[in-house]
Fold this protein.
Amino acid sequence: MTFKMINQKTADYFNKWGRGYSDAWEPLARRGLSGFETGLVRRAIERGLKKSGGRLIRTLDIGVGTGRITKVFLDYDVAHFGIDVSSVMVEHCLGKFGGSERVKRLEVYDIVNPLPDDWGKFDVVSAIRVLPYASQWREALKNIYQALNPGGVFVFNFPNKYSSTIVPMIIKSGKDQSYASSYGELKQILAEIGFSQIEITGFARLLDVFYAWCNGKVSAGILLATERFLRMVLGPTLFARLLYCTCRK
Ligand SMILES: C[S@@+](CC[C@H](N)C(=O)[O-])C[C@H]1O[C@@H](n2cnc3c(N)ncnc32)[C@H](O)[C@@H]1O
């Protein structure tokens, strides 16, 4: 498939990670976070199925990585597609899921380009931990809107600039926060594009390094209990490091 590779640096970065990206999800605390994310994707798929009136739904996972989210889609009876800028990640997922009848296409593609017409439209689209890597994430959101069927569901996440996310950003790139957003800004951008029923929730106030460190039952339990407590006190999104949006076309 021909397209303009705009995010070559990201592709190179994830080509180096390769299958090692799965290891990042091994610590027990990270598995708790992963459960939250896969739960949101499941709910999005189930919403898509509910609206389908029994017809086979078409689903798309953007930024397949090592397949953590793709695997969730394949638990359902769907016609599934996947893309990633990293050829290593696509090869890896083809090795893992290429034999499944549910997988229709898994290809290298940069979502900053509009999806080709011959891919058709989708009922459920996910982009978990993908858009923050593209400075052109607003363009990507427009492309995703175009790729959805009317009523189609889109689920994605994005760092919250009003949270501890700001610490690594300041260290790495001074004042540049173009890869983070906020509850209000995301709602506005999504509504301007045309999305409706925009729901935003959040997760994780504590820094990501703690998630990487907490691999024992006790430490992971304390970390996740602290997160639950902070959520109870602050609500779902205030100061949450990650914002999760579910919306419809
Ligand atoms: C952090 S990984 C997340 C993988 C998977 N979604 C998950 O949550 O486990 C980000 C993935 O998105 C891909 N990616 C980043 N920018 C992209 C873009 N513009 N178009 C398509 N894929 C992209 C990367 O190559 C990488 O495999």
Q: What stands out?
A: The beta strands are 57-62, 78-84, 103-108, 122-127, 148-159, 196-203, 242-248. Residues 42 and 72 are 7 Å apart (CA to CA). The pocket of S-adenosylmethionine is lined by residues 7, 10, 14, 62-63, 65, 68-69, 83-86, 89, 110-112, 128-130, 133-134 (CB under 6 Å).
